[in-house]
What we know:
heterodimer; A: mainly alpha; two-stranded antiparallel sheet; 5 strands; B: mainly alpha; 1% strand; globular
Amino acid sequence: MFFFTAAMIILLTGSLLLPFSGRGHLANIAGPLFALTGAVLALAAGVDAICTGGFDFISPWNYQLGGFHLKLDPLSGYFTMVIAMVCGLSALYGRDYLKPYANEKHLGVSWSMFLLLFASMLLVITAWNGVLFLVAWEIMSLSSFFLVIFESHRPGVLAAGWTYLVATHLGTAFLMVMFLLLGQNHSYDFNVIQASGPMATFLFVLAVVGFGTKAGFLPFHVWLPEAHPAAPSHVSAVMSAAMIKTGIYGILRISILMGPFQASWGWILIIVGALTGIFGVLSALSQQDLKRLLAYSSVENIGIIAIGLGLGFLGFATQHPVIGLLGIAGGMLHVLNHALFKSLLFFGAGAVRHATHTLEMEKMGGLMKGMPITGTTFVIGAAAICALPPLNGFISEFLIYFGSFSSLYGSKGTFSVLAAVTVIIALALIGGLALACFTKAAGIVFSGEPRTREAAKAKESGVFMPISMGILVALCVYIGLFSPQVIGFLGPVFDTTVAGHPLGDASLAPAVVSLTMVSRVGAGLIALIVFLGLVKRRWMQHKIVEKSTTWGCGYATPTAKIQYTASSFADPIVSMFDTTLYPVKNLKTDPGLFPTAFSYESRSKDIFMHHVYRPLFSVIKSAALGLHWLQRGYNQLYVLYIVLTLLALLFWILWI
Amino acid sequence: MRFTIFFHVIAAFILSPMIPGIINKVKAFFAGRKGKPVLQMYYDLAKLVQKGAVYSRTTTWIFQISPLVTAAVGIIGVMLVPLGNTPGLLAFSGDYILLVYLFGVSRFFTVLAALDTGSPFEGMGASREVQFALLAEPALLLGLCALSALSGETSMNTMVISLQAGTRPVLACAIFIVLLAENARIPFDDPTTHLELTMVHEVMILDHSGPDLALIEYGSALKLWAYGSLTASLIVPQGILSPWASLGAGFVALLFVTVTVGVIESIMARLRLIRIPQLLVGATILSLISLILIIR
């Protein structure tokens, strides 16, 4: 209770004070300080909640729709931990990142919004009342909107912010309906809300749509690839690594409250998750903008989380608590893992943008030489997100794989075998595509020859940017190598999630035994690489080692122009999936006898944005224009509308 | 029993460079040539280790670490796989998931090292490598999925031991196809050339020289051994009681797999690049068929 209250007070005070702190450097010192203090306190509150059970606070005063009710249980504590970690490191990073903007932007307001976003996320996680939850949800959406449009002078940023604002409010609309239907006796307190039977499934669908819009489920993901590249990098990290997880939290919390888990929920999540994951990583692969690629990859990882949770729900619903536990544990651990490596990658992208003033991968290359820290941490982050051992991404995917493989042993019914096969195919495909996607991102940006002069001159900037990236790498490696300890620490979180479900003698113990072996093999791999490296260095001491140009099959003067580009690297896969990715290829040739200039452009557009939402919204727009005659600009007319509405409401109440 | 496990690992360390030699002998036999000696790869490795190295100025630490990763992954890979009824040294439940993703680690670094040189050829190889791998991975995992459904077991070694005879050939075919794809053999890739048409795996290591190249070659040999053992385990007959006899049967089966690779390389041409995805999807379908056969 103490830590949480202290964190909230610090964050809200900071958010109120900072707009007055002026434009420049003072705000850029005070903002991160407030955020860091708040993050440390919130982290303590989260850890405390996981270890000792947290608190339950009901305010003495009451308002119409239920009280000001906060509850921090281990599940909330876990998400608090994730949010605090990401926000704290992003604030540290943001200090360096925002420095160049000190003279042109009002940094006080920006930091104030950052603190407000942080505080509102904590409130979303702890709110124990539907109305309070929605209020916090709305503050979260609006503060992040203002952060997205920070660089409003850049083309496309306002449009991205607009897309985000519309998407998030459409999602909220579904949530409002859901909470209205969940409420009992004019109270929306989480202790009394309930649902059962087909109604519960309907409400679950509403939750998947409403929360899924925030989380980035297919087909509600369209705002992510717009908003994340538009926002400053430390904000992209917070949004992608922490804020979209509130959607996952929402789905989990509502499912627990409506519990016990139903098989249909599991299937919905598995199918939505598989589609989201595959589509997300495919779209990521076809991008040329680094942050757009990362945004689509968040869609992919949200898919993996949904797959894990879906498998967990299905396991419990079909009386296979072991599978259930494994799915839940895998999905939940992936929340933390994705928060770590995705903020790491966004930090890397931000550092690259700082140095090269662009996010176009085709204009980069060879950045590893000028920016070794960013390059190295980015490569490690890329390996982690590809779920490669011995890093953290592998651990959560291992648990999900382990769960689906366990549903194959013996005879557990065709149904669960079907689910297992779906999960395994989806994860394997996502894994292969992610490897293609992130070798492309890391390889095209940091390896090879620089493609432009800016790329050749790129240098590291700041002290705090490398520090925050270094901390994240350490955490990724730690979870990869000490996964049994991490699973043990998170025990209460899993228990809270599955409370009320018959567990029997099911436990995570067999998986932990395997993870112990995975950790050992991982440590062994690192040790072996280091050992081989030392042996090689010693062996090579007296050998002739030369430096030369890259051997181009006899061609002695290679240039950066003949390198493989991001587009050419991804082209075979993009063409293979062209029905989903819709690559638009544009080849301009010179028809003359001695052709000189050729140009070739290929872009992948989001199939949902361009073939679903654009047409849909243009239909709505033309329909709305048809009602134009209602709006005349006369105040008298509007007063008349109000009176008519009130009368209609009066009659309606009298009627029933 | 324990001793045979160690024996398999040590045999893998020592004998794996012979596998490419045997394949080459088989190919030479089909072509009516005398062929290189079976031990050629040992000579090559010895020569490479003696040499110095040339590094491109474009490259960074990624290029330097990639051979180490390839070799280290190969070494751990052969410790994980069983051979016939002889379990893997590090066997535990779920080990096959680790095996698949471990080879992912070496692929990750090989591809990055290829891009690190800035060479267009290596970029082409890297691009194709990730394309084929993304199709090979579901095939392999589904094959393992079928294995585990069939045996009700959780680890590779117990899986292959308690396998019924019926679905073995189908699964062996599926995993064999993945073996050919993952180890850059015909019909997916031609290991003897790195000409433009066959630029997949060999072209990615074009810039490595000396001890680095030796590490890569040795790592690839170990990888071939690991996949070969897994395939061989599916064709070793069950019920051999003596551990040594079963290990012996495992080696014979591995030899058979090796010779089969050689025969395939002799009688087939490399597929057109656009046909390769179809073959890999075919392998996935084979795995799926065996899975359906099991759970029907």
